[in-house]
Each structure stands twice: as structure tokens, then as C-alpha cells.
Amino acid sequence: MNSQIKYARPSVARNVGLWVLQILTAVAFLAAGVAKLSGQQMMVETFEKVGVGQWFRYLTGSIEIVSACFLLIPRLTPVGAALLFCTMAGAVLSHLLILGGSPIPALVLGCLAGLILWGRFGRVKAWLSGLSAGAKSEQGALSGVS
Questions:
Q1: What are the distances in angstroms from CA 8 to CA 3, 120, 142?
Q2: Confidence class of residue 138 from pLDDT cuts 50, 70 and 90?
Q3: Which of 36, 86, 88, 131 has the lowest tally of Cβ within 10 angstroms?
């Protein structure tokens, strides 16, 4: 099986635009994650209102930091974007159903993560087709064994 999976590369302008977006989004999520993990009073109070416990603040901050790093690693960019999109969907719902206040910051960050995921979807398709090809070759090898 070919270890290098080919996918259609975006145009240079689109690629540069996506990289700028990825870097800016990563910086925003790194800052948000550090605020959560460092125990800033506003974050502690926000997660107290959620009512699940402070462990959830640590989990959310960790997801934000790890995912922000993933945004800067080309092979992991779609994974980071997907994790951040889901995290921000939860944040929007939390604001609407529990916390009150404006869900707009979480909505904007979620949209940025979604835009990155959409822009880098070629990598996801290549990765999935690689998994599919690997599974087919493994099945073929197993069926040849008596």
C-alpha cells in the first residue's frame, strides 16, 4: 500500500488563506484553553454555573489547547478543527440553555473551526480512502490464507 496518499491540493491563495485562518484560530483557542487551565476567576465561575464540576473546565481547556496545536499540524488539522467545532457547538448550547449571555463568541469560533474543516476536507477524504484501501488489502490478504 502506498504510504503517501494523494489528494487535490487547494490553490496557493486558498492554502495561504486557510493557513492564516488556522494560525489565528489556534491563537484564540490557545488563549481560551490557557484561561481555563490557569483557573481564571471568570472561567471558574462559568463552569460552576454549568454544574458538572471543575473537571469539565480542565477537560475543555485541554481539548482547546491540544486541538489548537492540531490546527498547526497539516495531517491533524481536520481532527483539530472537528474537535473545536464540536466543543463550540457545546459552548453555544451551554450559553443558550444554561448560562445565558451571548453565544456569539462561541458561535464565531465554531464557524471558524467549521470553515477550516471544510477547507481542509480534501485531507479527510484522502485519509478515509487510505483507510478503505488498507482495509480492502487486509481483507484480500486474509482471504488468501487457508
A1: 16, 10, 32
A2: low
A3: 131
